[in-house]
Amino acid sequence: MTIVKIIELVGVSKNGLQEAVENAVKDASKTIRNMRGVDILSWTGEIDGDKIVEYRANVKISFIVEER
Amino acid sequence: MTIVKIIELVGVSKNGLQEAVENAVKDASKTIRNMRGVDILSWTGEIDGDKIVEYRANVKISFIVEER
Amino acid sequence: MTIVKIIELVGVSKNGLQEAVENAVKDASKTIRNMRGVDILSWTGEIDGDKIVEYRANVKISFIVEER
Amino acid sequence: MTIVKIIELVGVSKNGLQEAVENAVKDASKTIRNMRGVDILSWTGEIDGDKIVEYRANVKISFIVEER
Amino acid sequence: MTIVKIIELVGVSKNGLQEAVENAVKDASKTIRNMRGVDILSWTGEIDGDKIVEYRANVKISFIVEER
Amino acid sequence: MTIVKIIELVGVSKNGLQEAVENAVKDASKTIRNMRGVDILSWTGEIDGDKIVEYRANVKISFIVEER
Amino acid sequence: MTIVKIIELVGVSKNGLQEAVENAVKDASKTIRNMRGVDILSWTGEIDGDKIVEYRANVKISFIVEER
Amino acid sequence: MTIVKIIELVGVSKNGLQEAVENAVKDASKTIRNMRGVDILSWTGEIDGDKIVEYRANVKISFIVEER
Amino acid sequence: MTIVKIIELVGVSKNGLQEAVENAVKDASKTIRNMRGVDILSWTGEIDGDKIVEYRANVKISFIVEER
Amino acid sequence: MTIVKIIELVGVSKNGLQEAVENAVKDASKTIRNMRGVDILSWTGEIDGDKIVEYRANVKISFIVEER
Amino acid sequence: MTIVKIIELVGVSKNGLQEAVENAVKDASKTIRNMRGVDILSWTGEIDGDKIVEYRANVKISFIVEER
Amino acid sequence: MTIVKIIELVGVSKNGLQEAVENAVKDASKTIRNMRGVDILSWTGEIDGDKIVEYRANVKISFIVEER
Predict the structure, then answer these.
(1) What ipTM score was computed for the predicted complex, to two decimals?
(2) How many CB pairs under 8 A join D and E?
């Protein structure tokens, strides 16, 4: 039997929104296996002067827990 | 002291919405103890032809972590 | 002249989500007449072990108050 | 190339919430092919006396339009 | 007289979120004329390993129906 | 058997919010039959100087499709 | 001491949205005293042919209960 | 048999947000028995000069109606 | 280069909802130029006896700031 | 004639949620006159170790602009 | 590389809303390190007689997972 | 003492969503100093033919007002 769990995390990037989401998935892959889908909940950024210096993506990632 | 945590997961059933929620709780019980409540966030289904062949329930489950 | 009022209440059932809504309506019928419609706002449940032992449905019920 | 479209419709049943969703899918199948998923947006019902005499499910159904 | 209608559809891309929206519009243009605006409702993705292999954008597109 | 569908469209009027909704229904009646209900989702307007020169109403209209 | 309570009801009118809200307040005044404020939650209408034949306003009304 | 009802009211306090909620419950207790739970929907305040002179808490209170 | 800003304000009228929105725009025009669009966020009213004596419309107004 | 405007700002406090709201109002009073009401949109905090070291309250403040 | 995760939990207090949030953070600190921020999602309470005997705060806590 | 204010504005770009957000920040920097963070509220676009010819990002920008 398989269980689908959902975690929330924050992806971060200096280069853009797309990369922030990709990083969230890449980061999650270090501790989570069998990821299936990602939902983007919200986007934020940190500003320095007139530039966004850090992009952040709040995401939910679903993954499958194989039953032992 | 007791801590109440909340996790999100997806219950799945071939038979109906009610069973999808029951399965979410049953699935969660394999790794989580002391569950107290369940909140149903949303319902979806997968269609094949003119039938729903898989029902899914996104749920939040609260459980108590006994402090060691 | 007729007035349409809306009340919120919680239907409860040991057997399932559908019955929880039915009970909300049945319960309301003991004090309210001329009910017309029901809106289901949210579903929750109480867990004991690996089972849902009480299903709850938060509902809004609209009913008509006949003017005297 | 394939296009995924989404339509909203209302499933209706005299017997319960589950059947209302099933009917929405069955109804949609008369004019739409290649349906994939269903999202349940909200549940309502019509009351007569102390009973729900018609269950309704507002759903979104996604389907694939094969490009000619 | 002109009528403004709104449809919902899902844009898909292997390369990124931006392209998923562009594809939604390009896909819609095969069956719809006189499109005016697009609203992005939500973003999701499908994961394989540690990568997003499919980006999806749920969008609403408004278009003008010229009256005959 | 009857199927209840829901479409979204934008009603427009130079004279006011009420008329924008009425126009949405009137516009829809040119291509849709057996309309039953209308839900107003949001109101917007276009400004020129210190006046609203165009009122817009985003609406959802439900209608019945008679089965052939 | 004074208590502020809030009730929800539906105002109805054959003539327009504004009158539907006015009627909700007028209707409520038959059973409630010391009303203070009204919040409009949503607007709907019933359609016959290409016309809205009944306007409805879902409202919340706050009123003050003087303590005996 | 027991029926769980939900009412909405506004708690008021000159001293703070916490007391506004407590007052909502205390006020409700004058006309309602068997209250079980309170949900805080929103917080507002009235300002005079640079001070909040009245705190308000919009709350929903659930209570049990014992069947006669 | 042009910058589009958005402000929120409250339009007020003794006569009705439509006029409350118009007044919001008229009021804003005294300090803001180059207004383009208005979004109506919510409607409220103040009641005296069985009548609404003041209509209020919470609106967002977008306007263009010409760069010097 | 009077115009009611609404601004959004963040109140900050080292001591608690209530003081964060009070500070938002006190801060706003340095540049804004004739404030009337405050709406609390959301609460957040910054954590250091096992303590909240900064409380933040996102608020909307309405104020009256007297026409010259 | 650092990963920002988000968990949801319920803080509880007999004394008030502020302490319920503080307890959520204190509780979380027993199993989680490097917490950064807390978002308060909702407030509820349990009532006994005319008093709130338990305050609860649903919170999301973000924390940094140091990569090994 | 420092005050954190929040403004809403619309970033525009011919090239993509990311640039629309960057432009919102760049535009805001012409009249606002000490910007800290940006929240993306919603994305829209204007369509010509089968292409998005203008991307728009509705954003909230927080900035610090140094007290004189």
Answers:
(1) 0.90
(2) 24
